[in-house]
Write a structure and sequence with these properties.
alpha+beta; 384 residues; homodimer; six-stranded mixed sheet; 2 domains; Creatine Amidinohydrolase, Chain A, domain 1; 21 strands; 36% helix; Creatine Amidinohydrolase; 11 helices
């Protein structure tokens, strides 16, 4: 019996359910991808009962049988979806009829659905099934990574590091001139560095949605991706979080660099972030909480006089889980729960001051008994 | 008054609502992106009332104010989310409290939500608001593209064409040898062609999730993306559907090519698909239905003796809308509704036979009064 069916069996019996139903496309709903390993841009249904059954369109059935891990692949055509579409006014009502028959065929009476289950379909099934809305157990399961998952994340992190090297190399090769950095005769822009990062990632089978290469005022906003010429003598935050197109697992890494002359104040800020990150990484271990790790990081900042105030200072949490989603559980924050062996989390303190810009450093670590393994090999060098 | 607020006003008054609430991340929930033009990987709430208000995390507030079209950007910190997280056992319950206060502050009593609204939040709000679950009007609005949207799609289609040219050029430059195509001394693989497509798309600011380069038995499965050496003397289906990273709009195009000697039967199949596509494109105009266009395509196949049977022949619909999603409304299929001026749809008939493999041709057109504009410039050449 696989781990997945053991867990499912326990969850169903704990909640007195015959099955747990998920609905969505597996590009966006990663719980569905996790349980089926079937990547599809269009919505499909997944029933976790004695085994995993998926209900896909007839066009996807062949591919689903080949590619998915599901024990059973059923098609909406098996439930006469075309006839039902002709009978019902709204396509969604036809789909609900198909779902009902699919569930009844599998003897499902007591049904669990996750909190993000679509309300219309819920209402359509309510009369015929005894439905409980429950926290999805899958997001819990996803927190503890298997060896294969850690390998997949590591491989994304290697691609991430290579792209980071390309970016830092580009910035190193500029000449500070006035307020800008000159590269091959022109001011180096965020866009140019991001494009080099994208090409490097693609060569390693990865893609990145929102790479951050932010200097100047941009760097003081932790989510601003950055545009235009990069500044001389001022920190540039580079945050790369690629996903492998093959494995679908993310990695995440941030470095902050400065080309030119550094103001002593920003050097002190960098040192504080580095020390806070070290303290955070040292605190990560199975059994501690994300809240405690976050507190250790905050402590370093407070000791050094960097207090969060009015959107300045350390204005975000210490870290988040990384896996099939770039932000997943567990979190290293004020509400962070107990860490378990096999969690993969970022440790990414930062300090942000609109006048001095921002500094952030981020590594990716695996939680272990008594400590953590850092999946990040790349050095941290501030002044280039 | 903008078109968006006019439409919203009409929808709310038609349904006697004070507001319509959407919840999700705008990478996956394109209705939210459409109304806010704020791209965020983490969930946020959007209320369409007299204007558009969005409720984001404090970390996203600065960026949202800069980047989004929303009339108002509010942060969960404005509703003390941290205090609520400490008070409630489940983060979702704290979030529901924040949402309640956000809605009450805006005098919302009668609330509309779309069918895909998450059931847990729906249940959390049910006691305090009079909620109606309604078909989202936004997906309807999104069907008719503005001039700017059509330009964005066109620009993605130009990138798509360039990538298609690169792929076809690569296949042209092979030497058929036995069952394979030899390129630079080695059998040319799907992976190699896809990689060249990806690089070409990236150079034009586009990305593609699941490019299809499928030959041999792979080509007979319309959704199989293809792996391994490409066959000589046999059709290769190339289907590219990139999204612009900037505008977020998709394009979509398919060509089928054959390098080497073609069996007369497959040439006839190609001719039938080409003729069916011509008939489909000729049938597209404002006022006709997607069902009628699909029927015209089926007619050509039937006249030529290609009848769908047991998963062989023309096993999918004629086309689908393209915009912020790769598959959106309207559809050209048995359930296709009336087409309107400004709809953007694919016309993509195909024939699939496991022994002979598959052929598909796909253009992207804008529905006009009395006809359509084809956004696809690339020629159709079968035998290379």
């Amino acid at each position: 019996m696989s781990l997945s069916s053991q867990r499912t069996g326990r969850f169903l019996s704990d909640h007195e359910l015959d099955g747990f139903l998920l609905l969505g496309d597996s590009l966006c709903n990663l719980d569905i991808y996790y349980l089926s390993r079937f990547l599809a841009p269009d919505r499909f249904a997944l029933l976790a009962a004695s085994s995993i059954s998926i209900l896909v369109s007839s066009m996807e059935q062949g591919r689903a049988k080949k590619e998915s891990d599901a024990g059973e692949v059923v098609s909406t055509s098996d439930y006469d979806v075309m006839a039902k579409l002709a009978r019902f006014n709204r396509p969604e009502d036809a789909y609900i009829e198909v779902l009902k028959e699919f569930l009844q065929d599998r003897n499902i009476k007591r049904l669990g659905v996750p909190g993000d289950f679509p309300v219309r379909v819920y209402q359509g099934l309510e009369a015929d099934f005894d439905i409980s809305v429950l926290d999805s157990p899958v997001s819990e399961w996803r927190k503890v990574k298997t060896i294969e998952e850690i390998e997949a994340i590591k491989s994304s992190q290697r691609a991430c590091e290579e792209a980071m090297r390309v970016a830092i190399e580009m910035i190193s090769n500029t000449r500070p001139s006035g307020e800008f950095l000159i590269f091959e005769g022109e001011p180096l822009t965020s866009e140019k560095v991001k494009s080099a990062i994208d090409v490097s990632l693609l060569e390693r089978g990865c893609e990145a949605q929102d790479t951050i290469v932010a200097g100047g005022a941009n760097a003081a906003d932790p989510h601003c991706s950055g545009t235009g010429p990069l500044p001389a003598n001022s920190p540039i935050v580079i945050d790369i979080f690629p996903r492998s197109k093959g494995s679908r697992y993310f990695a995440d890494m941030t470095r902050t660099v400065l080309r030119g002359e550094a103001d002593p104040e920003i050097v002190e800020i960098y040192q504080a972030v580095l020390e806070a990150q070290d303290a955070g990484i040292a605190a990560v271990r199975a059994g501690t909480t994300g809240k405690e790790v976050h507190a250790k990081v905050c402590e370093v900042f407070e000791e050094r006089g960097y207090v969060e105030r009015e959107g300045r200072g350390f204005i975000h949490s210490t870290g988040h889980g990384v896996g099939l989603e770039i932000h997943e559980m567990p979190s290293l924050s004020e509400v962070g729960k107990t860490l378990e062996e096999g969690n993969v989390v970022t440790v990414e303190p930062g300090l942000y001051y609109p006048n001095l810009n921002g500094v952030r450093l981020e590594d990716l670590v695996v939680v272990r008994k008594g400590g953590c393994d850092n999946l990040t090999n790349l050095e941290k060098r501030f002044i280039l």
